[in-house]
Amino acid sequence: VKPMTPRCTVPKAVPVGKSASLHCHENEGYPKSTYSWYRNSEPLSPDTKSNAKFQNSSYTVNPATGTLVFHAVHKGDTGRYSCIATNDAGFAKCEEQEMEV
Q1: Residue 47 in this model has a pLDDT that exceeds 80
Q2: Is Kinase among the key words of this record (predicted)?
Q3: Does 26 reside within a domain?
Q4: Domain-embedded: residue 78
Q5: 3-state DSSP assignment of residue 75
Q6: Helices H, strands E: what count in the chain?
Q7: Rg (Cα) of the chain, in Å, rounded?
């Protein structure tokens, strides 16, 4: 069963240096969906250590739960966030939401 459009929760504004949690979830898809996050339509790498572009970022992505956690946000984390739920039957994307730092 193809995933339905996930519900995304993105904080509107976060002070620099604070933590922020973004959530993405849908429960229609079978098998269970995995989740990937995008900022300004660019995929956020789930592995920040191996990807030079994301080495300054302090976030972790859990593809199984759809949670994206910033441990300490900085100005560069400002942007439009969206999430895609994917399984063997297809994928679905939530609306982009702005997060300001």
Answers
A1: no
A2: no
A3: yes
A4: yes
A5: helix
A6: 0, 9
A7: 13
